[in-house]
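Posting this for the archive.
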Amino acid sequence: MQVDQYFVAFIDILGFAEKVQRDFSNAELMADSNLDSIRQAVLAARALGDVDAKISVDLFSDSIVVSTLFSREAFTPFLDACTRLQADLIKMGVLVRGGVAYGKHYSEDGIVYSAALIDAYRLESKEAEVPRILISPDLADIMELSGGDSQSALRVDEDRYLFLNFSRFFSQDECQMVSAALDRQLENCRGRVARKLSWLKRALHEGQGLPA
């Protein structure tokens, strides 16, 4: 059996248990449920992948896995699909963090067996910390990636990790709307949650060229 190299993103939905509990606290799902928001974003990412490349987007429990066959031509559409997915979720009030890696990846008949997925998961669980999707150093080296300005696909964070520049898929009005929502949440939280929200607001403002 041949197992090919793939680009794989592992994306974790933050606060998933609370979102499920909130959705199912009513007899019927509301039109603006978290499930509906996540479903819309996943379907939009799948549609983008169908247009530009053979990109698979799968949701199970609190995890989203995005994958496509490894090639230099496929990397930009793959990165755009991951970034737009994150941006769409943020606009709907759903925060995620994740990792992007490459390596051997098998996904057929409901079976996923993947070294790339393990690497992406480790990056998400051990390094991401805040709502960002990181690029593995190995992938950055082999693709000769670097961070750029607010319109670049990738930016460099303070710890030197490259992360997906979700702010490039925001209009100024959308940025202001999300920023106001983050301010309201920050009034009532402390500790790790406040750190995550503060990082997101700063990254969004910097990406839009606004004061942090």
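The chain has a mean pLDDT of 87. Strands lie at 5-13, 56-60, 63-69, 96-108, 111-114, 133-135, 154-156, 162-164.
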